Known about the structure:
This protein is mainly beta. It has one helix at 6-23; strands spanning 76-78, 83-86, 89-92, 99-105, 108-114, 116-118, 120-122, 132-138, 147-154, 161-167, 174-181, 190-197, 206-213, 216-221, 224-229, 239-246. It contains 1 helix and 16 strands.
Amino acid sequence: MLQLPIKKTFNFFLFIKELLYHAIPFRKNNNTEQFVDNKKWELVFSDDFEGTELDESIWMTHYYWGTSMVQLDEKQTYTNSALSVSDSCLYIQPRNNKESGWYYKDNKIIRGEYEISSGMIHSGESFKQKYGVFSIKCKLPKGKSLTPSAWLLDKQSWPPKLDIFEFDSNRTFRISHGAEWGLEDDRYFYETKEAVWVRDLTDEFHIFTIMWEPNVIKWFIDNRLVAIYCGAGIPQTSMYLVLNLALGQKE
């Protein structure tokens, strides 16, 4: 017979509950065609990627702060050649293209040579908003070291930042989300990041949503609530939408 003090027994059962919660994969959901109910919100921005070309009056295809900039020390640059539109879908396909790029490190701008180009789009010039429901329907990629993400970014600075989702193709049973605020590269930088354990979502399209309000942020997958945050650092400024496919970091 197992005997434990009351406090330790309580902690033991909390541990088992937490373990089982994360061990159960995200069940198959029938709401892959239904966006989160947004009756309290007015639709002000959308793109169904109709036609055969990306609408560049809506989307920019490089980081807002530079056409050849990359984030951190990633393995790719971002170019238009990795983007294509057909069948009401935007396709991001990394390519073996030699390109030069620039990134920030140790408060310096460093030039790097890259063997791969990938794609990103963002609404930095066409659309930004404070609060709302932001959704993307997409199919996550299969392969090694592919890291697609959808996020919201302040036009003036980074952070703040809100992640609608982040995905690592090396860990297909995890979807991450979170928020960043404070001062980057400073002791006053903060972030909250969580991951929800899911079944493999790479076989079909799924809907990822963030509901951002003044005092609470909610995350959804296929219309199912998976996380809530109501602490410090919720952005109180207008932000724009970013979608990209990165390939991890250089070694």
